[in-house]
Amino acid sequence: MTANIETFVPEDFEPPLMLTHEHFRLEPLGPQHNEADRAAWMSSIDHIRSTPGYPDGNWPPPEGMTPGRNLRDLVRHADDFTARKGFTFTVLDPADGDVIGCVYLYPSPSPEHDVVAQSWVRADREHLDVPLARAVARWMETDWPWSRIDYEGRWS
Fold first, then answer.
1. Going by CATH, does the domain composed of 19-151 fall within 3.40.630.30?
2. Which end of the chain is more exposed for a tag (fewer CB within 10 A), N or C?
3. CA distances from 114 to 60, 89, 109 (A)
4. Nearest-CA neighbor of 107 among 155, 60, 146, 53?
5. Domain ranges in the chain?
6. Of all residues in the chain, what percent carry a pLDDT higher than 90?
7. Residue 92: enclosing H or E segment and its boundaries?
8. pLDDT tens digits, 51-106
9. d(C-alpha 23, C-alpha 5), whole Å
């Protein structure tokens, strides 16, 4: 299947709502994460920009963004999730629920892939970058309907 908004996931597919791991937990990103999400990425702009999958330098914005603008971004991601056009997950510390990163699963613009996956973690959790990427890659292979995965800057 070529991923696009109309066929990103089959109509009868129930998207997973959680991924648990010893060092993190994923749940759908939403407006309720605004303050912690914004604090997480704003504390790690240079680190995220150096993470595989963020080569164009457009995100995160070096000047940051207002809480209102970040909230609009989170609402857009939550709306995409509800509409099944894309799936964004916040990465939480299982001990205290603090936001430590994010995972994005969106249709690939390339006919060679079904989905493009991107992830980042805060600079102070850099040691979780590869474990998160590996866990998400396995999760996509076992719990999601895509066979042609582009984990940008990582591996296929």
1. yes
2. C
3. 24, 18, 9
4. 146
5. 19-151
6. 76
7. strand 87-92
8. 887 766 677 888 888 999 999 999 999 999 999 999 999 999 999 999 999 999 99
9. 32
